[in-house]
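Dear colleague,

Thank you for sharing your sequence with our group. We've completed the structure prediction you requested, and as agreed, I am returning the results in plain text so they can be pasted directly into your records. Please verify that the sequence below matches your submission; if there's any discrepancy, let me know and we will rerun it promptly.
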Amino acid sequence: MQVFDLNRQPREEWRQGVLTRMLTSAANGGGQLCIFEQWCETGHGAPTHLHAVEEVLHVLDGQAEVWIGDERATLTKGQLTVVPAGRKHGFSNTGTSVLHIQSTLASPVFEAASAEARPAGPAGRGRRHRRRLGFDFGFPLGLGAEGARQRHE
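Please find the predicted structure tokens below.
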């Protein structure tokens, strides 16, 4: 049995105003899940994106406006929503304090396709972002400037 001391796991900046701490993924032996926490400043969160797998968004503290397609809801501490695979979604901190949210993906590797428009290209497809976690890339648990590999397709 492996035991991980999350108190020693650093928070990494994924985007401006968003700190992330990876809890489990392929990088530390997770075979089916990717679980991470984020701390988002007011007005910050995750822009519209989608995953090929289901995701659970669980508000641990604060307030978030969450959208899935055209539906919107305000979630507060202790509430969660399940995002179906392949559905465009995102969230933003609409509260007055830091939003602490936990995300669980039904995959040990974090991959997301964003809704950003591609500058010029075939069929005007959106830009796809991948943040992969795993020993196959030889970087430590977590993402960010020191460990992430991002690929734009």
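Summary note from our side: The CA atoms of residues 118 and 125 lie 6 Å apart.

Kind regards,
the structure core
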